[in-house]
Design goal:
Helix content is 29%, strand content 16%. The chain has 411 residues and is of the alpha/beta class. It has two domains: 71 residues, Ubiquitin-like (UB roll) (Roll); 241 residues, Rossmann fold (3-Layer(aba) Sandwich). It has ten helices and 15 strands.
Length: 411
């Protein structure tokens, strides 16, 4: 079978050629089309360049704040210097007179004593007054326990004084002074200004340091504390207290029937004083003259152990006596009297006699004077009766029992 021939389609006809590029298109558009046809996954997009400064941002902020702070400090320094210069030379800050110095808390301290310290600052600039130095100088005044000095603009000074609290009189040489609980001595207040009711402490010497007086005052504080602990306020009955011997505290009572010297030892002051109070009237009836009682010994009481040979204190000057009486010293302590620190002429122990055991077992508060009497005669009379002497160690051991030994004048 014959094959029908027909015209064939050429390659060019089947796939016509693309239009030739137009010459009027600019190169920039061609480049843009090429960029759009590129896949973003083939290469990174172009970064936009940013112009950076010479310092990081945080550093720049810090530098800015530092500059502001430096400027503020500079201005503050200039203002301070100007204010200091003004305050240094201005008349407004000058203490003109004593009226610009306010003083509070004065009772026994006089304003003249304060002005002796602060008076040199009159006419001085308030900012140049050494407050700490003035405080130290004020505390050197015996009556001043503590002081504070403050300045107030423009030209005022305020001084606050805290005075010491006296607790007793003290005889030091030929003077009567006041003393506080720590042992600081103070002059008596002006006559008629204030009156106290204290006993007079003996045993303090002129010129001794505070470290020596302080232990004695601890003994005195303990004595008063014990005597007043029961609520009876026995310390108000004391006229003098001798602290010269810490192992033998001696008191002189201010009794209407006559002053009596009582040896209390170094402990149990209240118990021993109660024994004295219990038997006082009984002893006055038995003895023509009751001068002293020794309660130091264990299981015995010695009456009139200081009867003979007691030394006398030198009389106080009349001026001192008047000032002391005005301050409240009891008359019994002002008379030239028997020294509380005097020792008996005889060195032998007081003669005693053993006490029956059944009496020794009774409580001290209910004891009776059942012991045998031992008589001590004056130096120009008969000798003391022979008895068994007391043991030396008994003076410092335990509480005294109620048994009594009497040393009295011969009949």
């Amino acid at each position: 079978m014959a094959r029908k021939t027909a015209p064939t389609i050429t390659q060019d006809e089947l796939y016509p050629p693309a239009d030739p590029p137009r010459e009027d298109l600019d190169d920039a558009r061609v480049l843009d089309l090429d960029v759009e046809q590129e896949s973003p996954f083939l290469r990174a997009q172009k970064r936009v360049s940013v112009r950076r400064g010479s310092l990081p941002r945080k550093t720049a902020v810090r530098v800015t704040w530092a500059a502001i702070l430096a400027a503020v400090l500079l201005l503050g320094s200039i203002a301070t210097a100007a204010a200091y210069h003004y305050g240094e030379h201005s008349w407004r800050f000058r203490v003109e007179s004593s009226d610009d110095i306010e003083v509070t808390g004065l009772d026994s301290v006089t304003k003249s004593q304060v002005m002796e310290v602060m008076g040199g600052d009159i006419g001085r600039n308030i900012f140049f007054i050494p407050l700490a130095e003035r405080q130290t100088q004020l505390e050197q005044i015996p009556w001043v326990e503590s002081a504070s000095v403050m300045r107030f603009v423009p030209n005022r000074i305020k001084v606050e004084i805290h005075e010491r609290t006296p607790i007793a009189f003290a005889r030091v040489g030929s003077k009567i002074l006041l003393v506080d609980k720590g042992g600081t001595l103070m002059e008596l207040p002006p006559p008629g200004k204030k009156k106290f009711s204290f006993p007079v402490i003996l045993g303090m010497n002129p010129g001794e340091p505070l470290s020596t007086r302080s232990p004695r005052m601890r003994i005195y504080n303990d004595l008063v504390s014990q005597l007043d602990s029961s609520g009876a306020h026995f310390s108000q009955e004391l006229s003098e207290v001798d602290l010269s011997d810490p192992e033998d505290v001696k008191i002189l009572t201010d009794d209407p029937g006559g002053a009596v010297l009582v040896h209390l030892g170094s402990s149990d002051y209240l118990d021993r004083y109660k024994i004295y109070k219990t038997h006082l009237e009984e002893w006055r009836q038995q003895f023509e003259k009751l001068e002293s009682v020794d309660l130091r010994y264990d299981r015995q009481i010695i009456v009139n152990p200081d009867f003979e040979g007691a030394a006398k204190q030198p009389a106080l000057p009349l001026r001192v006596t008047k000032a002391a009486m005005s301050a409240g010293v009891k008359p019994a302590a002002l008379v030239a009297q028997q020294s509380l620190s005097a020792k008996p002429l005889s060195t032998a122990k007081p003669a005693t006699k053993p006490v029956p055991k059944k009496v020794a077992k009774k409580p001290r508060a209910t004891a009776k004077t059942t012991a045998a009497v031992t008589r001590r005669a004056p130096a120009n009379t008969a000798k003391t009766a022979t008895t068994t002497p007391a043991k030396p160690g008994a003076a410092r051991s335990g509480k005294p029992s109620p048994e009594i030994t009497r040393n009295q004048e011969p009949q």
